Here is the input.
Amino acid sequence: TFRWQGFKLEEYLIGQPIGKGCSAAVYEATILLSSNYQSSEDSKPLEGKTPDTEWDHGSDIQAAEAKPIQTNQQRAAFPLAIKMMWNISAGSSSEAILSTMRQELVPASGSALSGEYGTVACHRRPVFGKKKLKPHPNIIQVIRAFTSSVPLLPGAYVDYPDVLPLSLNPSGIGHSRTLFLVMKNYPCTLRQYLNEKSSDAHLSTLMILQLLEGVDHLVRHGIAHRDLKSDNILVELDSAGCPWLVITDFGCCLADENIGLRLPFTSWYVDRGGNGCLMAPEVVTAVPGPGVLIDYSKADAWAVGAIAYEILGLCNPFYGQGRSSLESRSYQEDQLPALPDTVNFDVKQVVKMLLQRDPNKRLSARVAANVLHLSLWGENILVPKSLNLDKMIGWLLHQSAATLLMNGLVDRSRVETKMKTCFLANLEYEDLWEAAFLLLSWRNHSV
Here is the structure.
């Protein structure tokens, strides 16, 4: 029944705030059914809802550290999340709003904008010149997108009074309508997860691998996220307790059909993306001029290398304070902090190669992911000092058969099964052999 539902804000039961950023607020939600009234005493239908003036996130980082991981019971009551964009400059027409905020629609499903009460008619281009992104297990999917009048939601007067429209706040500067995005409700962000739990070496490797698979999927579609950070990565646990990571918040992405991953940088007014701390060296040091292009093909992979420090239990070296802080504009590779001895040697090498200043020397997300796949599951083909083609083919056939059986007989939500599926689906001969030779050269050099 959801196929024809969810294209109007009035169809949702809105719960409490989940978080907020620099351009939107996110709330827990569910489709409005009669049973919802009985299952949630703390929530009311959207109409007539009063603001909760005691609820305050504070800064983004404080909110991430303070907010506990959602319980399964909370998520069962509110399986969805609604992101309400703050509309200051887009005007109040649906087409103007969608055009201005079109980056947010890049991970939208094919049906997200096609409902009876949706804002885009079938004959229009659904993402306004932006590339369409196919679904991927490590990328958020927007399942509904529509424009609607801005309502008064819990915490609005405390968290974002200035962006409310005049009808709700006499001193507000927001427009009366804005864009709403409906997604799955995840328990927490990666930052919150890492603040509350410590992962062993195997789980940490799987988390880095998932980010690389997600970034590789974006690169294959000619898209650069440009704002990767632990606050923009969501987490839930699979049936075995393994973290499942999903990249979200595409508001700063580069996804233009005409230019791909090479952005013309003709003046300082050109938007290079968000989060200056995790901006790759080739992006942050670019100087505008005629014919200058910024190549983003390995920029997100660099950001994964920086986030890997957080996953492996250390502070992000590009978020530090004082003398310990590094800047992507000027750091040298030998200044990077040493990773703990407990971290696998192959993982250390991958992180080191992802953080190479020169993108020509930096690993692509695909090759880096292949290295970790081989390190995790291909040890038997790496034992000899020279690679054997027949042995590699046999290993791939074995992996394919095992993955198909696991996907059919065991819980499909298992992270390891999904990662193996991604690896096999994106398999290319040259990338695989490059990864295998890299692993052998690293190990032989270390002996």
Residues 35-45, 47-66, 121-127 have pLDDT under 50 and may be disordered. Residues 389-409 form the longest helix (21 residues). The chain has 15 helices and eleven strands.
